[in-house]
Amino acid sequence: MVRRILLGSQLRRLREACNVSREEAGYAIRASESKISRMELGRVSVKPRDVADLLTLYGVTEDADREPLLGLARSSGQAGWWHSYSDVLPSWFQTYIGLEAAAEHISTYELQFVHGLLQTEAYAHAVMVSGHKGRLPAGEVDRRIALRLARQKLLVSENAPHLHCVLDEAALRRPYGGHKVMDEQLRTLIEFSEYPNVTLQVVAFAQGGHVAESGAFTLLRFAETELSDLVYLEQLTGALYLDKREEVTAYQGVLGRLRNSALSEHATREHLEWLRGRL
After folding, report:
1. What is the 3-state secondary structure (H, E, C) of the chain?
2. Based on the domain organization, do 60 and 91 belong to the same domain?
């Protein structure tokens, strides 16, 4: 999807530079004006043949200029690794995983669970079983956990994003899976906090109230200037993606104030060790 967005934004710039209307562009590839609009927004897959025809219409004739865009068109139809989990993955969450995998910076606030990118296998199992109260077959639980663990490879990949996770202490006090599971999860969080691309902070109970009364959220930032920052809000049966500048700015402000009120990275590690001692 990210590749489709990048391709679409570049096609839109080329079309506008040539003063070609969407209607004219659609006629050139035997499509409607609305399809051109959807292509430029990255909402539909794009055939390399159509991209080639549009590039010709826009005066892009040199192979060196055409090939990067044609390459994007070819690769945009390739399924991501997570599509192999489509049997247990809601379509709305597939979108998020694709965006997460493409992000340069992931900032998140969690108050009920440890963030999925930082969960141990046993903790993930306890959360999933608790949330579904035995309604999921064991095989599906295993598939969902495998997906969650596969997502974590992102943090050690060649182009790993920076993850800044702010955790409410409530997420750490909720004893999913019992003493052994929570001790392993807290120890793993300490290990993650030592990663150069992970910043972990805890908002301690001693802080009292804070500014994130709206609940958990994630901010995604991309290296590509064509992609605007996004706020991801997960719901029971779907998700919201906010990209209006004023909405994103509001959440950035909340996250900034959360960071200021949370424990420092060093104090967070000490607090996690303290919590382990109280299990």
Report:
1. CHHHHHHHHHHHHHHHHCCCCHHHHHHHCCCCHHHHHHHHCCCCCCCHHHHHHHHHHCCCCCHHHHHHHHHHHHHCCCCCHHHHHCCCCCHHHHHHHHHHHHCCEEEEEECCCCCHHHCCHHHHHHHHHHHHCCCCCHHHHHHHHHHHHHHHHHHHCCCCCEEEEEEEHHHHHCCCCCHHHHHHHHHHHHHHHCCCCEEEEEECHHHCCCCCCCCCEEEEECCCCCCCCEEEEECCCCEEEECCHHHHHHHHHHHHHHHHHCCCHHHHHHHHHHHHHCC
2. no
Question: What predicted TM-score, i.e. pTM, was given to this entire model?
Answer: 0.80
CATH code assigned at 11: 1.10.260.40
pLDDT category of residue 105 using cuts at 50, 70 and 90 = very high
pLDDT at 86 over 80: yes
List the domain range (segments joined by +) for residue 109. 86-277
Average pLDDT, the chain: 89
